[in-house]
Amino acid sequence: MGIADKAKNAAEDLAGKAKEVVGDVTNNDELKAEGKKDQATSSVKDAGENVKDAFKK
């Protein structure tokens, strides 16, 4: 996994967490759900990159 990919995934996860918190504080269920979706997307990308790395070895 490239460093740039790790940074993008970490940034997406962090942004998702922030959206979730803001959505929770403002009682905005749509924003909260979007934050959770962003975090899940980041996790899936991380898993995919880890699989690629495993096959490179």
Automatic annotation (TrEMBL):
Region (Disordered): 30-57
Domain of life: Bacteria
InterPro entries to which the protein is assigned, alphabetical: CsbD, YjbJ_sf
Matching Pfam families: CsbD
Compositional bias (Basic and acidic residues): 30-39, 46-57
Domain CsbD-like as annotated: residue spans: 5-57
SUPFAM superfamilies in alphabetical order: Hypothetical protein YjbJ
Family: Belongs to the UPF0337 (CsbD) family.
Protein name, as recorded: CsbD family protein
Species name: Aeromicrobium endophyticum
